Amino acid sequence: MSEDAGTGKRPTGTGKGPAGAGSERYAELAGTGPYGVRPGHALITLVEPHPGHEYAYNRWYEDDHYYAGATAMPWMFAGRRWVATKDLQELRYPEKSAVAQPVGAGCYLSTYWVTEGRYDDHMKWTVAINKRLNRDGRVYQDRTHVFTAFQDHEATVYRDGAAGPRDFHALDHPYAGLVLQVIDAEGPGERAELLEWLCSRHLPKRLKGSPAAMVTVFRPTPLPGDRMTYVKQVEGVDTRLTLLWFLQEDPRTCWDEHFTGLDAEVAEAGSGRVELVAPFVPTVPGTDRYVDRLR
Length: 295
Hints:
alpha+beta
């Protein structure tokens, strides 16, 4: 913003001219509604850059979209990007996945927290800003959305009880890895039973002595009708649960011991079908680290 000529002062904006048009609305909006720190909602998006576009996609996302298309928006208060190199992609299962086809599709995972109670407010902004970004040529087209959904928070299960970071810290704490797990219940009526089994029995048992400090559990919500056309409508809205396991170790070092067989355990309990178990490591912002190891 340029300084006022001869005054050395920056224009403050009154809401009546171009410099501050509509700015008074920010004060009104900030004074009402929820403003806690609990991640009541999340955006979880698994994306595959088209072959030959890996570097360009990564630079666009790192340098522009992570900010302009996500964290600069109201109520999206934390975010983190994750990457699956070829060796990590090869650990995924089941081979026949309803989420990723083939199961290795989706090199990059982005996760964002949205303040509880602010989903509708955020969604109005995100639809509008993405239309603007698209119109201005700031949306990278050579990519495929494998699994993109806004989600409502259902539960967080901690390994160490009250000790350690909370779920609202999870995207800022330097976790060494993340495992994305997607489970489909048999039907809408069975999802509540699946959630109860996960939180009271399965996850506490799996977390004990594991490198995972916590697991957050979400359920997907349908995208608005005026979403961008390149993002498909969310599947499994009534039956699906999405789990994020936050790891204190690289997933490669603990995969066989702690993350194989999750599909068999869910099936044995009669609670549903695991559609994806996929490990990731965090990206290094501002770099192209790992891009040469995606294929």
